[in-house]
Design a protein that fits this description.
The chain has helices at residues 2-14, 18-25, 29-49, 66-75, 78-82, 97-104, 118-127, 161-170, 185-197, 209-217, 228-236, 284-299, 301-309, 319-340; strands spanning 55-59, 86-90, 112-117, 137-146, 148-152, 176-180, 202-206, 223-226, 241-246, 272-279. The protein is α/β, with parallel strands linked by helices. It has three domains: 2-49, no CATH class; 55-146 and 272-340, D-Maltodextrin-Binding Protein, domain 2, CATH 3.40.190.150; 148-246, D-Maltodextrin-Binding Protein, domain 2. The strands form two sheets. A five-stranded mixed beta sheet has the order 2-1-3-10-4, with helices on both faces.
Amino acid sequence: MLGEKASAFIVVEVKGGTMMKRMLRKGTGVCFISVMISVFCSQVTLAQDFPTKPISLIIPFGAGGASDIISRGITANATKYLGQPVVINIKPGGGGAIGTDSVARANPDGYTLLFGHTNCNTILPVMERRSKGPDDLAAVCRINSAGGIFVAQPDAPFKTFKEMIAWAKEHPGELTFGTVGTWSVTDFLWKQVEYKYGIKTRSVTYPGGGEALTAILGGHIQVIAVAPQQSLKHIQAGKLHPLAVVEAKRLQELPNVPLATEEGFDTTIGIIWQGVLAPLNTPRPIINKLAAAFRQMTEAPEAVAMMKKFSDEFDYLGPDAFEKEWRTEYETYKKLGQIFKK
């Protein structure tokens, strides 16, 4: 019975590879199978013991940002679920590329992880061939995903998304939109607006969402796409006017604000995810153990309460589902990038 299970495992692992076929022809199949069983058993044993020391979670952006806040919130009780603490290490630079690269080069033993992000783990690899994407890192789990809100100055000459498009067509090059970095999610989102509706606008780039928000509140630009947790208090105070929500469903806090799709803008992008990634070739038993622990962390009442403070919630996906969505997103951005670069 063990032999049957071991053989099935090997077929799955090597996908009928040439090395196995040659060894079987030469009569060394039994030896090969024994080696593979030994490797498999050692990985299982390793996962059972893992972790035996603190785990480092690299944040590739600056302190105090959403990635820093969310990661600290979910890992506060990591010891309860893993038996060891998860230590947050801030390593910003290069739009997230520096922290990402450090994890990609780390030993694939599960002790060095990345709190990944759409910008540095999908868009940068696609558009600038730097940082690391789904071919360079292993997916552990998605923690959350969130869209944004198109918001305008309260005295803007339009009150809906459709009115904004109409005004932009009547005033070529006059509409000002703030983006966060070149080839960021917001930059791609606005390029898709311009491409879809054939409008010409003035796009102004800012280093972060906070700077773009400050700019629109100061009257320097007319429109931005911003996360709900950053904009809701300003909307409720009447300092910003919501045009449309880039989400799958309307926001509970803004039930009367339509979705972008309801306004005719059927965007294929605009959602930002954050998730845990590991060095490539990290043993699958360790990946599974980490994924299960992080799921428990996102279900902890204190972590759920933290996200509610930001008008957000967790959107967990396990390793396989996360990797599938990540690769699909990667291909989508690759196709759009080819269009926008022309």
